[in-house]
Amino acid sequence: MKRRFFIVGSSTLAISGLLSGCGSQQKAVLKVSLLKNSIPVQLLNEFRQEIQRSASLDLVAESQLQSLFTQLQNWQQKAEASNWWSNLPLPFGKQKATAVADLVTLGDYWLEQAIAEKLIQPLDPKQLSQWQQVPQAWQELVKRNDRGKPDPKGKIWGAPYRWGSTVIVYRRDKFASKGWKAPTDWADLWRNELGDRISLLDQPREVIGLTLKKLGHSYNTEQLDKIPNLKQELLTLHKQVKFYSSNAYLQPLILGDTDLAVGWSSDVLPVIQRYRNIAAVVPQSGTALWTDLWVRPLGNSSNLDLAQKWIDFCWQPEIARLLSRFTPAASPILAGKNPPEFSNTDRNQLVLSTPEIIKKSEFLRPLSEKVRQEYQSLWTEVRFQGLGVRDKGLGAG
């Protein structure tokens, strides 16, 4: 799922020098590979103060989640190659060890694959003092078996530290000038006046999912052929759409080429803060949720205490509030809450949502290969079926 590619930039940002104090060569070093801008500088400085006497922090930030997942794969491949070389007689068997991070940001979409490919190792919740503060839905999300499938009795494979949702974003000025009622739920995407005025994500799970939600079903429905009118609802929605894209869906809205879009809250939040004529809403019937996790690469056995300290630090209530205030996402510790210091603004309603909406919302669970093919087949049929409806993609997302 190519989520949050709206941020421009692909270079790797190393900021370890900023955070390593004098004499760090004699200290333990916590190495973290994380998503760029997912942790505010204030939080990093706070953690540095906590560990400065005994350790230092070495961070490398990537601009895309895909890059972080690829990094996990590369480390595993190098480890396997190193093991092969080590079995050769000297001097051929001498190989320099690959530097592997202690913790890595991973999007929940990649969790199943990371477990199945043996790229990461489980965490011990007994060693995480703040684990019980994590809401049940987030705990259940990271409990998986050794194939990466959800399992209530499974191991804990990641520590959720921030989350967001799929939202509706619209031109406030266009709706007001035309006397249209502001959208509040998925059903509004089918309104006649929005014909050919919508930007949608180029993602089968998202678009089929929101249509299922509109019909009163789960995002994770497995038997699509059992849902009456699903295909017809999708075809009707397709006629409403002007653009499909997973990385450029907000530009048409900003330029006025569309009046409404569906997107990820972390992309949307910076836009509504910059453009006063653009507003966003979390659909009242519930939506799709995503979360970013801290995971431990397989084979890394160093700095376990420091890694656990970092995870617990991110889950502290005061740190959770800091993260939720200064980044375009929220800590799961605050899911559905509205701390007194948070004003009741559009931003905070978008970031924190409400307990009622969160209860109706869902994470996109892993589907079997057979069911994934059913989603893709239906998506292809709707997108490219005849009926005189042209495909309106801006390119694969």
Describe the 3D structure:
Pfam families: SBP_bac_6. With 397 residues, this protein is an alpha/beta fold. It has 2 domains: 13-163 and 293-353, D-Maltodextrin-Binding Protein, domain 2 (3-Layer(aba) Sandwich), CATH 3.40.190; 164-288 and 359-384, Periplasmic binding protein-like II (D-Maltodextrin-Binding Protein, domain 2, 3-Layer(aba) Sandwich), CATH 3.40.190. The protein has helices spanning 16-19, 41-51, 65-86, 111-116, 136-141, 172-177, 204-214, 230-240, 251-255, 265-274, 304-315, 317-326, 346-352, 355-360, 369-384, and strands at 13-14, 28-35, 55-62, 103-107, 120-121, 143-144, 155-156, 159-171, 198-200, 241-244, 260-264, 278-281, 288-297, 362-363. The longest helix has 22 residues, at 65-86.
